[in-house]
Design brief:
about 140 residues; single chain; mainly alpha; rod-shaped
Length: about 140
């Protein structure tokens, strides 16, 4: 009987395995809520950083830039055709080659090749792309 006195009021702890602990675990509402919030935030971080997600404003500006680039790509060959129709084109191409690379688009603008039919002034982006194409022709 004396052996029982030592164990009165003291519960013996038994070793509980993970599987049993997991099945008996009952998370609180607070833990569930913050787990949900953390999951949402982590999903957003991963999505925007590596998943390719963008905001509506970013998508709009990307679409506008792509549209502008597409228009420039379509107008640059017209600029080349206008160059080919210009008198003294061989001499002007040599002058263009001798011009510093950062001034070439200005040269194309001054020659009027980057001025599209119906327009009053040349487009600098078309002139840049036209210069690139003309340099390919000269090689």
């Amino acid at each position: 009987m004396e052996q029982d006195k030592g164990y009165k009021g003291v519960e013996q702890k038994r070793k509980v395995g993970f599987r049993e602990w997991w099945s008996e675990a009952r998370p609180t509402k607070t833990a569930v809520f913050w787990s949900w919030v953390g999951s949402v935030v982590l999903t957003m971080i991963i999505g925007f950083a590596w998943g390719g997600w963008v905001t509506g404003g970013t998508a709009q500006s990307l679409a506008e830039k792509m549209a502008e680039d597409a228009v420039v790509k379509r107008l640059a060959p017209i600029c080349v055709v206008q160059f080919k129709q210009a008198p003294g084109k061989d001499q002007k191409l040599k002058e263009l080659e001798k011009t510093d690379s950062w001034q070439r688009s200005e040269y194309v603008e001054k020659q009027g090749w980057a001025t599209m039919p119906g327009e009053e002034k040349p487009d600098s982006k078309v002139a840049s792309e036209c210069t690139r194409l003309l340099m390919l022709i000269s090689k």
